Amino acid sequence: VHSCSFYISCSEICLLQLRGGSRVLARPVSVSVFNRPEARSEQQTLLPVGEASLLTRGFQTSAVSRDIDTAAKFIGAGAATVGVAGSGAGIGTVFGSLIIGYARNPSLKQQLFSYAILGFALSEAMGLFCLMVAFLILFAM
Predict the structure, then answer these.
(1) Under a CB-based contact definition with an 8 Å cutoff, are residues 138 and 73 in contact?
(2) Which among 8, 59, 68, 119 is placed 20 to 30 Å from 1, CA to CA?
(3) CB atoms within 10 A of CB 73
(4) Is residue 65 situated within a structural domain?
(5) Are 33 and 8 spatial neighbours (Cβ–Cβ below 8 Å)?
(6) Signal peptide position in this chain (predicted)?
């Protein structure tokens, strides 16, 4: 642990403070040491040309909350669209039951068909409500 630590004299801290302002002292010492121009030139001579340009890019530690909100919107909208699959399964069940009921008693064809249309409408309405909630999550929030 001792071999990895850096010792900086008071004159170097004053020089770093004059160069970078008072925010330098709030950062870790290793960041201040490695961001000096002398340290950058030594690191860039050891690396190939493509990797040397990556070292000059600034280091950002704060997460952007907009990306998290966008990801949460997509996850919520995807979870809301699961109900559309349930609607499709419900419609299949309604018409499958219509065929079975018609095969058992053909004389009830008209009454069974009206019940099937009612079941289709209710199942389709649930699917459309789920789709509407998904679009509300994506575009209204």
Answers:
(1) yes
(2) 59
(3) 15
(4) no
(5) yes
(6) none
Could you tell me which of 141, 127, 49 has the C-alpha nearest to residue 94? Answer: 127
Residue 96 maps to which CATH number?
1.20.20.10
In a domain, residue 25? The reply is: no
Neighbouring residues of 123: CB distance < 8 A, sequence distance ≥ 6? 87, 90, 91, 94
Whether the predicted model's global pTM rises above the 0.90 cut? no
Per-residue pLDDT of the chain (141 residues; tens, 9 = 90+): 445 444 455 455 444 454 555 554 555 555 555 555 555 555 555 555 555 555 555 655 555 677 888 899 999 999 999 999 999 999 999 999 999 999 999 999 999 999 999 999 999 999 999 999 999 999 987
